[in-house]
Amino acid sequence: MKNKTVLYLCQAGVIAAVYFVLVFILQPISFGALQVRVAEALTLLPALMPGAIPGLTIGCFLTALLPGSFGAPDMIFGTLASLLAATSTYFMRKLPPWLLPLPSILFNAIIVGTMISKLAELPLALTMLEVGAGQMIATYVLGLPLFYGLRRTGLNQLQPRK
Fold it and tell me: Residue 52: inside a domain, yes or no?
């Protein structure tokens, strides 16, 4: 039991760190209505490992501290979108992989799109479409190949020794 907890915490920590670093390095394309947050490719990982749920949530929360974010509203609503998407992806893990990006696309388009629309005074429907399009690029173009590659390596079979 102790080994499982350590593995879970390690997965969460590594994923949070990778998410944050990717957003930090790619800040110019990671914020705003028209964004392709490359780190969102990691949002399919909950289907492989449950430690990705807190990892993605914490990583997203920390990125709200970066310049270009919407600060406190981003900490609340961006983090909520990530938590809901990651949890949904985990529960969808037995479905065909091409469906796994859908929670991330939908929750971010609706929640983050609405937040950006209100705070930046942009048209709601257009902002939701732009956020959703960026999520589609990040999850389908980058995330699915990452998912298939990691699954092929047997990462989802990684279990602690007894």
Answer: yes
* CATH code where residue 58 lies: 1.10.1760
Residues 6+ apart with CB under 8 A from 85: 43, 56, 103, 104, 106, 107, 108
Contact 29, 36 (CB under 8 A): yes
**What is the C-alpha to C-alpha distance for residues 58 and 75, in angstroms, rounded to an integer?**
10
Q: Structural domain of residue 93, as residue ranges?
A: 2-157
CB 59, CB 98: distance < 8 Å: no
> What's the pLDDT tens digit per position in 122-148?
999 999 999 999 999 999 999 999 999
Q: What is the pLDDT of residues 27-55, one digit of tens each?
A: 999 988 788 999 999 999 999 999 999 99
Give the global pTM: 0.92
Asked whether 42 and 52 are in contact (CB, 8 A), the reply is yes
